[in-house]
Write a structure and sequence with these properties.
Elements lengths: L9 H11 L4 E5 L12 E4 H17 L7 E5 L4 H12 L3 E4 L6 H11 L3 E4 L4 H10 L6 E3 L25 E6 L9 E5 H11 L14 E3 L7 H14 L2 E3 L9 H7 L4 E5 L2 H6 L14 E5 L3 H11 L3 E7 L2 E6 L20 E5 L12 E6 L12 E2 L3 H7 L5 E9 L5 E6 L3 E4 L2 E4 H9 L4 E11 L3 E10 L5 H13 L10 E5 L27 E3 L10
Parallel strand pairs: 1-10, 3-4, 3-5, 5-6, 9-10, 9-11, 11-12, 12-13, 23-24
Antiparallel strand pairs: 1-2, 7-8, 8-17, 13-14, 15-16, 16-18, 18-19, 20-21, 22-23, 24-25
Helix pairs in contact: 1-2, 1-3, 1-7, 2-3, 4-5, 6-7
Length: 542
């Protein structure tokens, strides 16, 4: 791992990259005729990107924007977001990217909470943004990207603070999706984002980044930290190119990776089963990928994926509040075990129980992290916007409480179990929803699965599984088949007591299932298609 490298600004490291790697490609979008922008693809060098960023910075500065101000952007995964972010950060403005999947009321909340001085949006999103502004108590001026020009840029309504950006200056406010309640705005400083990229670029082992030689294909959204902070800043640190599709497309994944000459890919757990379900093609071995970086691959799929497609998947851990990732990148990797690395200098780790007491090795508990005893918060996010209480609660006792349940092996290797709130407590037994989901996904008829706790009058909580099938089947027949599949392979109490066969499951822009949106009005066992299997859950199979 590298030193923290949090003593610089985004503008400074980008200017250095332009100077050192001017002719190298900086940012690209793969060709896609079905996309409504840049259908022939896009690629820009560091030198040309530096020129455009300087022009944009000058336009914003001339309009009165600078430190102490925020600009919200609704620009999807387009290259323009990266250029505008770099330009705004260079003059000390904080970016607030908006999830394009948000409804108008959700955007209205974000605008009221972050209070941007300007909203930059796409013409195609003007109606969506106008509806949000109509519902918001905070109504900044709106400008379409297509109309952006020095003369068209709305003058800042309040003066910027003097001076230049420094490492402590906020660079981004990223809103976490969460599973309950309103999203929290995570304040990320220049020093934080710069350090995140340097850390990522120096993971080592199988994840070595060669200077000026890597092409990093990242299909994840630019309104989240993975693509907009970690890999982007890592690319800038090493003079490499980030390739940004509009989103993940399983049918075009391999052709895009081959055509763009990608050498590194980013993934989420949901990507692996979708790719493995695709019929074999020549493109799946025509690539130049050296390794993948991601999290959440199901243990049963990890080795089959590597063997079929020919490159290692490096499992990592990170979160918006601390994107100095831990990684199982050094051989021998622990493939198929949910391992994600060990504590290292710069990331201390504890595993604790509900009372914040350390648990023994091999026992699951919540993972707490910090930089060090002397400087626990160094390299972490600056806090939750307008929520000092939530920030201090997360940092209670001098450790950041991640909400992730993990266990640590005697050799120090950390293994992911589940999010803390996705632990089901049934008759004194703790059940990881992820474990049941993983088992369901091994059935050939299952496309997606979401497992959660529902109240049970006898056993405190019961296991509910919501399942999307690959082919039509009668709900009751499918439920009994899937129950037997789990019952025969897991401890009896882990098998779903309820199974609901559904057509679709709500997801975020990163394709994470939004469990809290499956039953917005609460779980109703009388809903059509929900099958009660609780009577079949017995210690001894019938």
């Amino acid at each position: 791992m590298s030193e923290l490298h949090d003593g610089s600004t985004i503008g400074a490291i980008f200017a250095s990259a332009v100077s050192s790697h001017g002719d190298c490609p900086f940012f690209a979008a793969p060709p896609n005729e079905r996309r409504d922008y840049l259908p022939a693809g896009f690629e820009i060098s560091y030198r040309e990107a530096g020129r455009r960023v300087a022009e944009l910075s000058a336009a914003y500065r001339d309009a009165g924007y600078g430190p102490g101000q925020r600009i919200a952007t609704l620009l999807e995964n387009r290259p323009e977001y990266v250029l505008h972010k770099l330009a705004l950060n260079a003059i000390g403005v904080c970016c607030v990217p908006i999830n394009p999947d948000y409804r108008a009321s959700e955007i209205a909340y974000l605008l009221e909470h972050s209070e941007p001085d300007l909203v930059l949006t796409l013409a195609a999103r003007e109606g969506q943004m106008s509806s949000a502004l109509a519902q918001s108590a905070h109504r900044p001026p709106m400008l379409q990207l297509e109309h952006f020009a020095a003369g068209a840029l709305v003058k800042a309504s309040r003066p910027a603070r003097g001076g230049e950006a420094v490492p402590e200056t906020p660079a981004s406010i990223l809103y976490t999706s969460g599973t309950t309640g309103r999203p929290k705005g995570c304040i990320l400083s220049h020093g934080y984002e710069v350090a995140s990229g340097a850390w990522y670029a120096s993971l080592g082992g199988r994840a070595i980044f060669r200077t000026g030689e890597e092409r990093i294909y990242n299909p994840l959204p630019l309104y989240h930290a993975n693509a907009a902070v970690v890999s982007l800043m890592g690319a800038i640190w090493t003079g490499n190119c980030q390739i940004q599709p509009d989103r993940f497309h399983p049918h075009s994944w391999w052709s895009e990776i081959a055509e763009t000459r990608a050498t590194v890919v980013h993934y989420l757990g949901v990507i692996a089963p979708l790719l493995l379900a695709q019929p074999p093609s020549e493109n799946e071995r025509r690539h130049r990928v050296r390794f993948g970086i991601g999290a959440g691959i199901e243990p049963q799929l990890h080795r089959p994926f590597e063997e079929r497609f020919g490159f290692p998947l490096i499992e990592v851990w990170g979160m918006t509040e601390m994107v100095r990732v831990l990684a199982d990148s050094c051989e021998p990797r622990q493939v198929g075990t949910r391992a994600f690395g060990r504590a290292v200098a710069g990331i201390d780790v504890r595993i604790v129980d509900e009372e914040d007491r350390d648990v023994a090795d091999d026992q699951p508990g919540e993972m707490l992290v910090r930089h060090s005893a002397a400087t626990p918060r160094r390299g972490c996010f600056s806090g939750y916007l307008k929520d000092a209480a939530a920030t201090e609660t997360a940092w209670r006792g001098g450790w950041f409480h991640t909400g992730d349940m993990v266990w640590r092996a005697p050799d120090g290797m950390l293994h992911f179990v589940d999010r803390k709130k996705n632990i089901i407590r049934r008759s004194g037994e703790n059940i990881a929803a992820a474990e049941v989901e993983a088992m369901l996904l091994t059935h050939p008829d299952v496309q997606q699965a979401a497992v959660m706790a529902v109240k049970d009058e006898l056993r405190e909580e019961e296991v509910l599984a919501c399942v999307v099938l690959k082919r039509p089947m009668p709900a009751k027949d499918a439920a009994h088949t899937l129950f037997r599949h789990c019952y025969e392979r897991l401890a009896y109490f882990k098998a779903p007591g309820w199974i609901h066969i559904v057509d679709t499951l709500p997801t975020t822009g990163t394709q994470k299932i939004q469990k809290h949106n499956i039953y917005p009005g609460g779980f109703d066992p009388l809903t059509a298609g929900i099958v009660d299997l609780r009577a079949l859950k017995r210690r001894d199979p019938a």
